Amino acid sequence: MSIIAGDIGGTKTLLQLADFKGGKIGDVIYEHRYVSADYANLAPMVQEFMQTCGDKLDMSQLTGACFGIAGPVAGKKAWVTNLSWEMDADDMARTLGIPVVRLINDFAAVGYGIEALGENDMVTLQEGTAINGAPGVLIGAGTGLGQGILAWAGDHYEVLASEGGHADFAPNNDLEMDLLAHLMKRFEGHVSYERVCCGRGLVNIYEFMRDTGVGNESDALKAAMESGDPAAAVSIAACEGTDPLAEKAMETFINIYGAQAGNLALTCLAYGGAYVAGGIAPKIIDKLTDGKFIESFNAKGRMSKLMVNMPVKVVTNARVGLLGAALAATRL
Length: 332
What we know:
Blueprint: E1 2-8, E2 12-21, E3 24-35, H1 42-53, E4 62-69, E5 73-74, E6 77-79, E7 86-88, H2 89-96, E8 101-105, H3 106-113, E9 122-126, E10 136-141, E11 145-152, E12 157-162, H4 174-186, H5 199-211, H6 219-227, H7 230-240, H8 244-268, E13 273-277, H9 285-288, H10 292-298, H11 304-307, E14 312-315, H12 320-330
Parallel strand pairs: 1-4, 4-8, 10-13, 13-14
Antiparallel strand pairs: 1-2, 2-3, 5-6, 6-7, 9-14, 10-11, 11-12
Helix pairs in contact: 3-12, 5-7, 5-8, 6-7, 7-8, 8-10
């Protein structure tokens, strides 16, 4: 039997044809990367992919397809945030001649993909004591702050969607309280974790420190931020240790990231594991492993004794979303 899986982004899309047996992915039969904007919608791209597969694709063996979409998903409909694509799973199934099509959010696909990872695909921040079948959680800072809950379904984990990244930011020290007050004025009220824990969130922290005199901005970093991606510029300077203000901003970012990961894990007692994913984590792995993230994760007062028993790992495999879409496709 075989499935089609896809990791669908606003910039690039990766499609894969793979065989499977007993709910486990076998060999990848064919795989191709596409420039998303070259197509009017997902269906024409998948149709071209299927034609390119040629004899490698046996329609009598194809059981279904699952696509992880970088955008909102509502039932059987989905939209790509940075494109004008609108998709309907049933329409795609009819158009493409695929028995069943499932559309899931790309972060949900990451959650499913964790099950397919090996030890070399993750970095352990805290060993903990895993409990089989216990809930798990997923958090990932990137363009935004994705969150999800992993619930045991008898033989695998299902991913429960969450918008917890938009929950109220709760400061844990005087500096963070000043940060909250600063951002409440800037955003006219509500300040979510996503405002301080994503790529743009790192920049918000840096700008707060610059504008309130926590540190002085260097000419070199200012130029780098103005000429390219500001978040990347701050992150690189912090990780390379070339700018004290960037390092201070990153330290606060890590503390907030760890604290919110711990909040999520505490909410559902994640003895199945807490997984840190997203585009930022692998790029700042040295900062995540220096102890500050876990210190903030575990700092839950009377509940700290529970937190130290929860396994915490960073996902470093960039293909985890495609792996998750493929696994989800085998369960259609």
